[in-house]
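Re: the pair you flagged

First of the two:
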Amino acid sequence: MSLMLWWGTAAIVILLLLAAAFIWLIGVKSQQPKRLPNDGQPGAGSSFERRDFAFESGGSRLEGWLLLPAPDREGDAAKPPLVIIAHGWGSNRARVLRYTERLIRQGYAVMMYDARSHGDSESIKAPSAFMFRDDIIAAVAYSRKLEDIDSTRIALLGHSMGGFGALLALAQGLKVNAIVTDSMPVQFETMLRAELKRKKLPLFPLMQCIPRIWFYRSGITREQLRAADIPAILKCYASSSDPSKQAVLMVHSLRDSFIPAQELQELEKELQAGTVQSLYVLSEGHSASEQDPAFWEHVLPFLREHLQAEEDFRARTARKAGGDDSASFPQSGI
């Protein structure tokens, strides 16, 4: 081999190694979500009581808030049902406070927490969608021990990756009264593609390489990936009419440019009618579905249908909220 050919080969090898190292660094950095401070706080007032709490998931400490509605009258012993709110990738509990006012006005207790590597919770080396799944399972298990809520009436509201984790948890045996997903990606790659576009990074070869880096660093096997199939999970565990299966309402905005609504539309085509309920709203962006009146017009009746064990609960919450919400929303399911 001539000296020039040797140097040419060496240069190519060095460039390939540098490119591989660069892609690895991008993969590692992209797997650590930007930690946003909880710069919002639940508003002070007499309509609810705030309690700070912490629980463990995967050996890490997670921080959260529990918001309890004011009792209907002094000495009222009835315990409220609970809605657990799971935020998405790169978010935190303060950024999903937007859901809480309407829920509390209806008499629901609300539990919200920072997933690992988010907000005020402890960090882990390699966060993933499976981390969101496991944090949700831990949150539900913790909530069932709370003395101030009705542990037989628990619902999940998951935004984006929080919704994805909630559905993954079904395959792990999670069973709650109802699940609402908002602006949820259906595939692992969807969130990565959206992040790369937002950061103006090339899809090729990053889309082919970064998922492998993520899964390797998280210790996720191919068998686990094959099992994390949202359509297959919903076919097996979800139903709008079978009480032995999970009631699921999936919401997405047609104006969401980050996670396109087309994903949910394609999912619906793959599922049998009645597997899940779906709603399309017209709010702008990825984190504003609740601003469309149609969101609450569907979500509140869905929660009522699957959470109410007491016949007089609607009357109690109507008195508490002045009758506004109970009068404006349908009393039956969707």
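Second of the two:
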Amino acid sequence: MAHDHHEHHDTEHQQGHRHGHGHGHGHGTDIDWSELGPLLESQAELITPVYERVMAWLGQEVTEPGLIVDAGSGPGVVSCLFAEAFPGARVVAVDAAAPLLDRARARAARQGVADRFGTLAGELPEVLTELDYPADLLWASRSLHHLGDQRAALAAFAERLAPGGTLALLEGGLPSRFLPRDLGIGRPGLQARLDVLEEDWFARMRADLPGSVAETEDWPALLAAAGLKHTRTRTFLLDLPAPAPDRARACVAAHLSRLRDGIGDALDAEDRATLGRLLDPSDPASVHVRPDVFVLGAYTVHTAVRG
């Protein structure tokens, strides 16, 4: 599930939890994106209704783009959605993890958009200089916060836009919720306590990045500082009420499992036991079967235009 920094999608990379990709919370802050491929795909597929509404919104301003660049594309779920939403555009998925780009190309072939779909492997933002021509739309979903100097990266993103081109960032939003405050087991408020630990993890992850620079996360101001104009912000809701469908339960279980592996040691014994029960398929209190599992997430997109 996406947390608001991610898919860490998440989601993460799209990005889901707060981090847009499904941040791979290991005990350290390194993330093996290639290993996360299937989880990133399932999370992005779950969030597809949000992405479709985002694209309809973007399409009001971005008309008939020739080139759309997905910067930090992960396995290409969103890249392929862009190809479907903008049938006249060429889409390039950009990511440092070549195995994720393999998945993106396979998805584009399955969806019949391979003739307008390309990939570019390398580190952001430097790899963008290898694009053949400037982008009419550059999309960065929870990829910017994995770059040490976000202000410099935004300036580099802006430089790769065509005149009149749009930069769209998915950053921020709210931590996803999928369980009642009082679960009927353990101490109420488990998700809020997990959020605190995730925030600590995220701060360490940012501090550990090469060339890390602390930055006030005022995204419209940072877009303006990159020389862009006409900033807009809109938040989109993912609302899957209880009882959640099986694929949503699977994403919730995968998210909680990654949290247990990555930050579970920082929980007290009671919360660790509660998390164990939530992840035990044989327990009637588990997220696999309990009727009150839902998914509620808020995803914030900021846009600005190159003059």
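Residues 190-208 form the longest helix (19 residues).

-B.
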